[in-house]
Amino acid sequence: MIISVASGKGGTGKTTVSTNLAVSIDREVKLFDCDVEEPNAHLFLNPEFENSTPVFTFVPKIDADRCNGCGKCAEICRFNALAVLGKKVLVFPELCHSCEGCRDICPEDAVEEDARELGVIDSGHRNGIFFVQGCMRIGEAMSPPLIRHVRSYARPEDLVIIDAPPGTSCPAINAMKGTDFVLMVTEPTPFGLHDLKLAVEAVKVLNIPCGLVVNRSDIGDRQLWDYAVQEGLPILLEIPFDRSIAEIYSRGQLLVEEVPSWRPIFARLYDAIVDTIETRRSIQ
Amino acid sequence: MKELVIISGKGGTGKTSLTAAFAALSSNHVLCDADVDAADLHLLLAPQIKQQTDFIGGSIASIRPADCTRCGICIEHCRFSAISDDFVVNSIDCEGCGVCVTFCPEQAIDFPPQKCGEWYISDTRFGPMVHARLGIAEENSGKLVSLIRKQARDIAEENGRELIITDGPPGIGCPVIASITGATAVLVIVEPSVSGLHDMQRVVDLASHFRIPVLICINKFDLNPDMSATITTKAGQAGLQIVGRIPFNPAFTKAMVEGITLTEYRQADPDLLTLVSTIWQTIVQSDALQKKQADSILPIINI
């Protein structure tokens, strides 16, 4: 089973929820940090990293001896990663989406495989949790391929928690799609609700069951609760604003370790997720 | 003309609340909301839309079953596993590369351009604003960001407005790169936490990669004074100017609930308002925005 922890708005508490949830579940669990642009879960989990592997993607390299300057490669490239100047082909590797159309179309077999580094995959353990994160290279624009690499560490029998990136576009979609449940972390403010609605629409497109965690539940206003009722979204946990929680977070500590009374609350959150998935299955 | 882009790396540090507060303190500017994925600035500025335009992003492949001979060449060429065994393109997985379209021997694959969102030119009580809404689960956010920044520049040019204030997205990927390339300076809003510091360092590295001057503002600095001191030290070592430190204050959220900027919120602590105003003056007078080469802005990179 894969649970993705997502949100429309950034900074609502995805990492807090995914890390505290992972350490509170009484069975073997994998935690994947798919917020590869700004991976933070490791700062709270403090895993012992055992492996660090750079990940590359295809970009074209032109064999000048074979190239006759026909320009078919530039023609097929929808991403402007190739341009022909006179008889010379220029490659802009940062724009390449690795579709390999240029290699497929070249009549002279002059397009060779080169590589662009997407970032690094780090993996390791802490207290029985297998942790994997992607860390995107500074200057790299495309996060989805690296997100997919992180997710390739899941096996069908695993319980996996994914810390997803914020937003509703391709990075968030690539972290959420094909998961069994989306745990949406939000806050009851106009920004939180507005972005939650966008994220919930994205989850509907993906057709995944979804439940909410309301963080800082006593700030803002009450519109979020009306929306949750209207959409039939279960609120599985409310975490009130507490300066001491914010301070524990700011130091990189886990709430369930600093305030042990939170541990059974996060364990019950997992049970509530399992119940929600089962209820939905039985309805269908 | 100058362009200040407000970013953070980490989400939820206060980018949009501060962008709106600065908009209320500034004059002769154009506003731009480049967080097209989860745009929120309009919730505080209530823009009156004057012009609405469809954003046509990339194209998505679509197989015509009547013409498809199920030869499988498209599946062989698709590097994104977007075509099912029964020859249906999954529009979420389709990258829009069009390789299948080119190679289909029956020419049975259409490649219609997609409406991926909308963008708007609006009036607000604090001047013109360019903003957008990316469609749900759509790609090409970087392209849309580049487009609206270009629009903001055109409006500034036509109306003799000297400054563009751009609210940027979180992260360091495609929409962020599209938001900051060619800008005069970026203002990084950081919160004093281990993750705030970590994410600030990555976004500062990104700005340095594109040679854009960086200003730092620490928000909610009193939630962890030790971490704020660490951030101050690290910024100093990197030669980055800290334009101010703002304490945690519920007035930001209360103003947001009212749908107004902090600057307009009557119950806000006057000391807080003075502080935010001073920070804005510091930003305007900073070397990053004032130095001579800052007068010429560079092209936006299309990604």
UniProtKB/TrEMBL annotation, chain A:
SUPFAM superfamilies to which the protein is assigned, alphabetical: 4Fe-4S ferredoxins, P-loop containing nucleoside triphosphate hydrolases
Cross-referenced PROSITE patterns: 4FE4S_FER_1 (PS00198), 4FE4S_FER_2 (PS51379)
Keywords: Iron, Iron-sulfur, Metal-binding
Highest taxon, organism lineage: Bacteria
Domain 4Fe-4S ferredoxin-type, first and last residues per copy: 58-87, 88-116
Matching InterPro entries: 4Fe4S_Fe-S-bd, 4Fe4S_Fe_S_CS, CobQ/CobB/MinD/ParA_Nub-bd_dom, P-loop_NTPase
GO-annotated molecular function: iron-sulfur cluster binding; metal ion binding
Name the UniProt record assigns to this protein: MinD superfamily P-loop ATPase, contains an inserted ferredoxin domain
Protein source organism: Desulfofustis glycolicus DSM 9705
Lineage, uppermost ranks: Bacteria, Pseudomonadati, Thermodesulfobacteriota, Desulfobulbia, Desulfobulbales
TrEMBL record, chain B:
InterPro entries linked to this entry: 4Fe4S_Fe-S-bd, 4Fe4S_Fe_S_CS, CobQ/CobB/MinD/ParA_Nub-bd_dom, P-loop_NTPase
Pfam families: CbiA, Fer4
Keywords recorded for this protein, A-Z: Iron, Iron-sulfur, Metal-binding
GO MF, any single term: iron-sulfur cluster binding
Domain of life: Bacteria
SUPFAM superfamilies referenced in this protein's UniProt entry, alphabetically: P-loop containing nucleoside triphosphate hydrolases
Domain 4Fe-4S ferredoxin-type: 59-84, 85-114
Protein name as catalogued: MinD superfamily P-loop ATPase, contains an inserted ferredoxin domain
